[in-house]
Structure formats: C-alpha cells, structure tokens
Specification:
Length: about 70
C-alpha cells in the first residue's frame, strides 16, 4: 500500500541520515526513535523493501531468461 511505501522511503532516508552522522549503520531502534514509531513498524517497512527488491530481481531475471532485455 502507499502508506507502507511512504514509510519505507522515510525509513531509508532516516537510516542514511543517521548512518552518515554516526559513520556507522543506524540501528532499527535509532530509526524508530527518530521517526517516533515503534521498532516493529520500522522492521515491517524494511521487510517490505526487501520483499519488493526480491520481486523486482525475479522479474528482471525472468526477462533476461526470456530474452526480453538486450
């Protein structure tokens, strides 16, 4: 859904910002605190991103196998 996608983009942006500030990978707890949401919400958003990425990679693989991409 759109709200999950919007949250996922916010999570990514905050993760990058915090990671750049700290020079280390931001934790889900830090991201949740910055967004003022529960850690489970951040975890769900990150899972949705991973699921979407996997789906896109599978589609690309299928297109390559079928010769639909040069």
């Amino acid at each position: 859904s759109r709200s999950v996608r919007d949250l996922a983009y916010k999570v990514i942006a905050v993760r990058e910002k915090l990671s750049n500030e700290k020079q280390t990978e931001a934790t889900t707890e830090e991201i949740a605190k910055a967004l003022e949401v529960d850690v489970k919400v951040v975890e769900s958003a990150l899972d949705a991103i991973a699921d979407h990425k996997e789906m896109l990679m599978q589609k690309l693989s299928n297109c390559l196998a079928e010769g639909n991409i040069n």
